[in-house]
Design goal:
Order of helices and strands: HEEHHEE
Structural class: alpha+beta
Number of domains: 1
Number of strands: 4
Helix content: 10-25%
Shape: globular
Radius of gyration: 14 Å
């Protein structure tokens, strides 16, 4: 077990130099915009129940179940590098 700060530092070290993932600023709020217009199969792969679409109960169609309903329009975290950067405005 490790603390949140250590976990974040270790995770950022793992993705540093990655061709697929980035985190330009761990404190920056990123607008979702069209970033998650497609289903995210990692939601099912890692069993992220809080991210599953609550309107779709069946688990046989990953595309429907793994298309989350967002609670807010902004999040912080790791981004896929191939995602559009047009919506990267910081909210103050």
């Amino acid at each position: 077990m490790q603390g949140k700060t250590t976990f974040i530092q270790d995770l950022l070290a793992v993705i540093r130099g990655s061709s697929e993932w980035e985190c330009p600023d761990k404190n920056k709020q990123i607008r979702i915009g069209g970033r998650m217009a497609e289903a995210e199969p990692l939601i099912a792969e890692y069993g992220l129940a809080d991210w599953l679409n609550p309107r779709y109960k069946a688990t046989d169609d990953v595309k429907l179940a793994c298309h989350p309903v967002f609670k807010t329009t902004q999040y912080r975290g790791i981004l896929r590098r191939n995602a559009s950067s047009n919506d990267d405005e910081e909210e103050e």
